[in-house]
Amino acid sequence: MLGLKLATDPRWINIVESNIEEILTDHAWCEQKAATNAITIITLNSEHEDLVTDLLLLAQEELEHFQMVHDIIKKRGYKLGRERKDSYVNELYKFMNKGGNRLQSMVDRLLFSAMIEARSCERFKLLSKKISDPELSKFYHDLMISEAGHYTTFIGFARKYGKDIDVDKRWQELIDFEAEVIKNYGKSETIHG
Q1: Contact 128, 172 (CB under 8 A)
Q2: Averaged pLDDT of the chain
Q3: What is the pLDDT of residues 63-108, one digit of tens each?
Q4: Contact yes or no for 173/97 (Cβ under 8 A)
Q5: Long-range contacts for 143-147 (Cβ within 8 Å, ≥24 apart)?
Q6: Strand, helix or coil at 97?
Q7: Which one of 78, 96, 97, 120 is most buried, by most CB atoms within 10 A?
Q8: Which DSSP state fits 76?
Q9: How far apart are CA 29 and CA 121, in angstroms?
Q10: How far apart are CA 46 and CA 48, in angstroms?
């Protein structure tokens, strides 16, 4: 369903398990950034009532996920560290069309968002199946399902509003671009690292 070209190396789990506090902190900030991204899309495209309605719900859900991760951090006696830079997301951002019209920019932002959700979903699935911690295994299974729904929301709006754009072609270009980007990741205890 996700169409990703390159799966995460399962050995990434060993890196994650070597520093659970770090993956949880990184994950918490990923959820905050996802909520902020949804709000940014709303701000830039407020004339689309259905998009506003759905992305408000999505932003709220991302903030709930942030709180859930933060609760796990506190429960385990960890501290929420400082916000982390997400180099993977910054590299994906380079794909987005900066000089196109407003519609092209919206479609690219929606596809960019769908890609981040797709990769997060793929990573959460791997965590749910391979991490040795039963609490985190269940937690990441539940979040995997949520991320898949977010992916579908973003792709759906790109297709709905991008009628004059070959959205499937643009999505395939992003899939190809992401496959090259992700080759440099999977080596740190971060969600996209």
Answers
A1: no
A2: 94
A3: 999 999 999 999 999 999 899 889 999 999 999 888 779 999 999 9
A4: no
A5: 143/65, 146/61, 146/65, 147/117, 147/118, 147/120, 147/121
A6: coil
A7: 120
A8: T
A9: 16
A10: 5
**Going by C-beta distance under 8 Å and a sequence separation of 6 or more, which residues neighbour residue 15?**
186, 187, 188, 189
Give a three-class secondary structure readout of the chain. CCCCCCCCCCCHHHHHHCCHHHHHHHHHHHHHHHHHHHHHHHHHCCCCHHHHHHHHHHHHHHHHHHHHHHHHHHHCCCCCCCCCCCHHHHHHHCCCCCCCCHHHHHHHHHHHHHHHHHHHHHHHHHHHHHCCCHHHHHHHHHHHHHHHHHHHHHHHHHHHHCCCCCHHHHHHHHHHHHHHHHCCCCCCCCCCC
Query: Residue 41 has which token pair?
Result: 């899309």
